[in-house]
Amino acid sequence: MVLSMDRWVGKVAIVTGASSGIGAVIAEQLVDNGLQVVALARRKDRLHELAVKLAGKKGKVYPVKADLSKEEDILNAFKWTKENVGPVHILINNAGTTDRVRLTDASTESYNKIIQLNVIGLCIATREAVRDMKANNVDGHIIHINSVLGHQVLGFPSSVYSASKFAVTALAETLRLELNSLKSKIKITVRLN
Question: Name one GO molecular function term (predicted).
């Protein structure tokens, strides 16, 4: 089955963690398909490079500096998007972090950093996207980029990373049930990287 992106042409997508890796590739694919992509990340220079690289494509990138571990940055990014680009139709929660430290050796600071970005930041961005979609009668789509470690614990050091990704799996299912109970047409998808 081939899915068409035609329904999303000209619509607004927010991609978190868009300055490199999977996030940058997702942003590029969306721009190639004609979407208006608000690319969020901490590294403004990398976002600017992405915008320059994708200039002249069917869609457009709007680079917005935002640290997804900070609620104020997330709220400001959504406010900027509403005021400058339009209502959100797609949210791709891609931003995430890990460490390579054993659970028993990691610092509390490391635990907090991972949970704050991978879980709390994702929740805040999701909440803001759903609020915007509801306010604008948008049957949107939210996609959480997850990991196999959100479904199975493997035998290598990753502190609380796997726990944070299991949380993403549970949060997606919780949101699916909530949206279904509200008879909402907003979709939620979890993609493994």
Answer: oxidoreductase activity, acting on the CH-OH group of donors, NAD or NADP as acceptor
Mode of pairing for the β-strands spanning 60-65 and 36-41: parallel
Active site residue: 143, 161, 168, 190, which one? 161
How far apart are alpha carbons 28 and 19 in whole angstroms? 11
Number of Cβ atoms within 10 Å of the Cβ of 44? 13
Q: Would residue 161 show up in a list of annotated catalytic residues for this protein?
A: yes
- The residue among 93, 89, 111, 116 whose CA lies nearest residue 101 is 111
Q: Which pLDDT band, with edges at 50, 70 and 90, does 125 fall under?
A: very high
Strands of 2-93, DSSP E = 12-16, 36-41, 60-65, 88-93
The pair of structure tokens assigned to 119 is 């879980």
What are the CB-based long-range contacts (under 8 Å, 24+) for 49-52? Answer: 50/18, 50/19, 50/24
Strands annotated E in 47-87? 60-65
Q: HSE (CB half, 13 Å, CA atoms) of 153?
A: 12
- What the chain holds in terms of domains, given with CATH numbers, is 6-192 (3.40.50.720)
Q: How confident is the model at residue 87 (pLDDT cuts 50, 70, 90)?
A: very high
Model pLDDT for residues 141-152, shown as the tens digit of each residue? 999 998 766 567
